[in-house]
Amino acid sequence: MSWLRVVFIIILPPPPFFCKLTLNNSEVVEIEGSGELTRAMTSGYSATCVSAEVGTLCTSVGASAFTRCSAMTTCTIGSGVTSIGNNVFAQCTSLSSITIPDSVTGIGGQAFYRCSAMTTCTIGSGVTTIGTNAFYNCSNLTSVTINSNTILNNNTACSNIFGVQVKEYVIGDNITAIGFNAFRNCSKLSSITIPGSVTSIGNGAFNNCSSLSSITIPDSVTSIGDSAFAQCRSLTSITIPDSVTSIGIGVFNRCSAMTTCTIGNGITSIGDNAFDTCSAMTSCHIGSGVTSIDDYAFNNCRSLSSITIPDGVTSIDDYAFNGCRSLSSITIPDSVTSIGNSAFRKCSAMTTCHIGSGVTSIGDSAFTECTSLPVVDDIRYADTCAVEVVNKTLATYMLKNDTKFIDGATFRNCTSLTSITIPDSVTSIGNGAFASCSSLSSITVDGANTTYDSRNNCNAIIQTSTNTLVVGCKTTIIPNTVTSIYDYAFASCTSLSSITIPGSVTSIGSYVFSGCTSLSSITIPGSVTSIGSNTFNNCSSLSSITIPDGVTSIGSDAFYQCTSLSSITIPGSVTSIGNNTFYRCSAMTTCTIGSGVTSIGGSAFQNCSNLSAITSLATTAPTIQNSTFYSVKTGGTLTVPQGSSGYNTWMNQLPNWTKVEQ
User: Fold this and answer.
1) Are 327 and 303 in contact (CB under 8 A)?
2) CB–CB of 191/211 below 8 Å?
3) DSSP state letter for 645
4) Is residue 355 left, alpha or beta, with left meaning phi > 0 and alpha meaning psi from -120 to 50?
5) What is the CB neighbour count within 10 angstroms for residue 411?
6) Which of 652, 538, 514, 657 is nearest to 586 (CA)?
7) Counting Cβ atoms within 10 Å, is residue 296 exposed (0-12), middle (13-18) or buried (19+)?
């Protein structure tokens, strides 16, 4: 019989220790103790210590414990340590690297100050705080590994912690979120790998990482915040995976080297300024999930030569493709219902455009300055949209029979235009489409048009379904079936001297009579309840106007620079007067403010340089702003009700005025 002898060798772990120092003569010094390692324990070895090992019996490394150990090249910190105090390794000028274990929760201020030889650093997962200037002047620190979710989500940029010279950041695979401004201004960072554990990239996370040339977003990420990669001027391409459901405002704004991008199918909205001024971008694939392209999304992408808008998109917002001067053609699918202001403005290479059947509204100047679009009878067209007149000297123009849209800038400043006929195909007319057409005297809408009419030979365009007058001229007679006057209806009609508004009208929109410099008088009927902003802006001949009792609000700038208006009475029905409402009404001498007014906006009467008498009927002074009565005439009279209160604030703005109660 034979026997097998088995020998078990048990390797015991080394006994726990507090701290060991290796000196420059190879001598190892063991410091005994437990708890905090203090400066007093290590100070005798500052000049000779070349390496240190902090054991598991140590729970904290106290302030300045290894300060000025200039020969120390390495230090190992044990898993029992929970805190590293202020200045612990300050001016350890030979220390080449440091690993902070997961047990550490806090690193003190200037802890590694001027560790000029340090090239690498690892931050453990337990670190929650890093003190001020902890890594200040670590001028050769180029690689940092971060395993702490807290440090990447504490609203402090890593460039402020570790310095802008760091070229490489390694994100631990336990990180779940890259927070606000986490790597902002890391100007030397050229590449980074985002692990599959990350689900969100916060606002400004990589903003202004000007050397970052490539990045891969893993399919674990579901959201990318505002300006997350803005001004990454070396980033050449980006692919947003299908897992991402939202991208923020300006997410890739001014990524000037980006040539291509792919937007995943999970995105529903391309946010404001998302790719604004990505001037090298030649193409972009938009995922099938996108339903809206928001304001300035591709603004000034001047190299963008082609783009396909998927069928699911319903809106293309203001300035979405403004300044895309290499874009030669565009097809707007039938799913789109609205195109915003200046959406394709300055797309100077565009030769063809197809507007889908679902579009019901096109904003002002949507295709203005698209100078390569075809011209028919002196009018430039984007498919069925009349864009702009190319010869503004003619007295009349003939619109194409299939014209559906008249842009807000189409006939603007056609000062020789005397007559226009709107064909039956037109369904939308932009704000101010006929502004500054000072000679226009004849307006006719084809009788077969179901959207607009010119009833009773009124020389105006009226939206039939709402009885809203949208375009007028110097000879317009407003029918008594009209209930509202829309924005810009008579804007800059400099030949209009008078107009009668019938009692059927209840609202007057913004800029309606703005720039009507010959309009000297107007009667607003008692049926009107609101006067919009800038309604009579720069009506420099308007000398008198009566605001009826039914009006409850007067918009900002409503009578701005009505320089002939000598007096005004605000009825008791009005509750608020907007900003700049009577700004620079320099002929105004008297003003009566009704009892219902509770607030008066900033600069409302500013530069009314002859205003010397104000009567307010409110027993409690309406609130005012610092500039409400700025630069009115010196030495006037404020008359208020007997026993009223709060007018001392007014008197502080009225220079050398006298307050009279009656």
Assistant:
1) no
2) no
3) B
4) beta
5) 24
6) 538
7) buried
Provide the token pair at 325: 């001067």
What one-character DSSP code corresponds to residue 612? -
Measure the CA dihedral 369/374/375/380, to 10°. Answer: -40
Phi, psi of 590, rounded to the nearest 5 degrees? -135, 150
Residue 456, φ and ψ in degrees, nearest 5: 60, 30
Q: If you search the block for the tokens 């679009």, which residue do you land on? A: 373
As a whole number of angstroms, the distance between CA 143 and CA 159 comes to 12
Two tokens, residue 147: 């395993």
Query: Which amino acid, one-letter code, is at 243?
Result: S
d(CA 302, CA 346): 10
Q: Is 60 exposed, middle or buried (CB count within 10 Å of its CB: 0-12, 13-18, 19+)?
A: buried
Which residues are CB-contacts of 599 (< 8 A; sequence separation ≥ 6)? Answer: 575, 576, 577, 622, 623, 624
Q: What is the pLDDT of residue 15?
A: 84
**Spatial CA neighbour of 29 closest among 40, 37, 18:** 18
Positive/negative CA dihedral, 544, 545, 546, 551: negative
Return the bridge partners of 379, or none. Answer: 376, 389
Of 49, 95, 100, the C-alpha closest to 77 is 100
Handedness of CA 619, 624, 628, 633 (dihedral sign): positive
Quote the pLDDT of residue 523.
Answer: 85
Whether the Cβ atoms of residue 170 and residue 193 lie closer than 8 Å to each other: yes
Locate tokens 């924005």: which residue?
487
Per-residue burial over 509-525, b if 16 or more Cβ lie within 10 Å, else e, is bbbbbbbbbbbbebebe
Q: Which residues pair with 380 in a beta bridge?
A: 375, 388
Distance CA 28, CA 52 (A): 9
The mean per-residue pLDDT over the stretch 365-369 comes to 95
User: How many other CB atoms are there within 10 angstroms of residue 279's CB atom?
Assistant: 16
Q: Shortest CA distance to 196 belongs to which of 232, 152, 153, 243? A: 243
Cite the beta strand spans of 497-605 per DSSP E.
498-500, 507-508, 521-523, 530-531, 544-546, 553-554, 567-570, 576-577, 590-593, 599-600
Q: How far is CA 189 from the centre of its chain?
A: 27
Query: Which contacts (CB < 8 Å, 24+ apart) does range 18-23 have?
Result: 18/55, 18/57, 18/58, 19/52, 19/53, 19/54, 19/55, 19/58, 20/52, 20/53, 20/55, 21/45, 21/49, 21/51, 21/52, 21/53, 22/49, 22/50, 22/51, 22/52, 23/48, 23/49, 23/50
The β-bridge partners of 31 are 19
Q: What pairing do the DSSP bridges indicate for beta strands 315-316 and 292-293?
A: parallel
Half-sphere exposure of 338 (CA within 13 A, CB side): 14
For residue range 232-255, what is the model confidence (pLDDT) as tens digits?
Answer: 999 999 999 999 999 999 999 999
Contact 191, 214 (CB under 8 A): yes
Q: What is the rounded CA–CA span in Å between residue 369 and residue 584? A: 35
The answer to whether the CB of 459 falls within 8 A of the CB of 440 is no
Please count the other Cβ atoms lying within 10 Å of the Cβ belonging to residue 269.
19
For residue 75, give the H/E element and its range.
strand 74-77
pLDDT in tens, 371-422: 999 999 999 999 999 999 999 999 999 999 999 999 998 999 999 999 999 9
Which tokens hold the place of 242?
């299908």
- Tokens coding 163: 């310095």
Instruction: Return the residue matching tokens 């809206």.
Output: 292
* Separation CA 182–CA 194 (nearest Å): 13
